[in-house]
Structures are given as C-alpha cells and as structure tokens.
Amino acid sequence: MRFEHLGAQPRIHPDAVVAPTAVISGDVTIGAGSQVLHGAVITAEGGPVILGENVIVMENALIRATSVNAVRIGSHVLVGPMASISGATIADEVFLATGTRVFNGARVGERCEVRINAVVHLRTVLPPETVVPIGWVAVGDPARLLSPDRHEEIWELQHDLDFPGYVFGLDRETPDLMMQLTERYGSSLARHADDRRVD
Hints:
The chain is α/β, with parallel strands linked by helices.
C-alpha cells in the first residue's frame, strides 16, 4: 500500500519489489533491486527516507524518518524482520539482524553488523566494520558496546544523549513529560488524517 503524505508520494524504482501488504508513506525513495517484504512499514514523518540499491527490508520491519532526522540507507543492506530504524543513517553493506533497534541521529558505518535484538542508541556512531553482539547496546560517539546487564553504565551514557530533548524537544525533568510528549507527538502524527492512498 502506498500513501501520499504531506503532499509527497513514494518513488519506487521499477526494478524494486514491494509486497502488497507493506506500507510505504510519503517522501520515500526505494532504489533498484530493493525488496520490501510483507508487513514492513516505511514512513516519512516530515523528513525523507532514501533506500539505495539492493536493500532488503524484511517482514514487519519499521523504517521511520522524522522532520529532524531523515533516514538514509546505503546499498546492499539487509534490515531484518521486526527491526526498527528511526531517523538514522545506515552505510553500505550493513546487516541489521532480527529485532535490532537503531535510534534517531545514529550513524552506522560500512559493513557493520548489528546482531539479533541489539540496539544502536540515539546519536550513536558505529565505525565501519563494528559488530554489536546479540542483545548488546551501542551508545555514544564514539560508540561503546555494552552488554545489557550493565544498565547503570548504559544509562549514564544514554542520559547525556537526552532522548526526550533530542527527539521531542522536551526537558526530561518536565513534571508532566509524558502528557506533553504524547500530545505533541499525537498532534504531529494526526497529519496522517489527510493521507491519500495512491496505488
């Protein structure tokens, strides 16, 4: 399913294949030889999503750009089932395994591997050929790789990256943070009310 969003329609190369149950919304460009499988969602929420050539987006993956952070995915990249990319840049020949999460402002270098259920956190930079082990968290610039049992160290690094400030423009100490966050984000997402199916 393809949707016009905020006046922009997806641009899909004739040699790319998009499954009929995938959702492609807004300012999305999909390069030659790319494959988008069933249940995947690629949505441009105010910023563009650009997929290079021979990108494979597997079942139920989510790729989302924001007005602050576009998504740029190089060529020969595999985005595994149930993986999520939000406002990040992914270089060529990257493998993002099942269930991986790559957050806003992150940059993943050439030939990196982010293995099953691993996380590349907000504004984290992975140098080329970095491997993030299964379930581990990469955080910071330059990235530190930490096992999930090291929560306090992860939080110490993550706190300074300021997720609510960077993504939503809100101070973490705001007393009604979740009220403001959901109202602001909901208002932005409500722009989908005017979307128009184009396929």
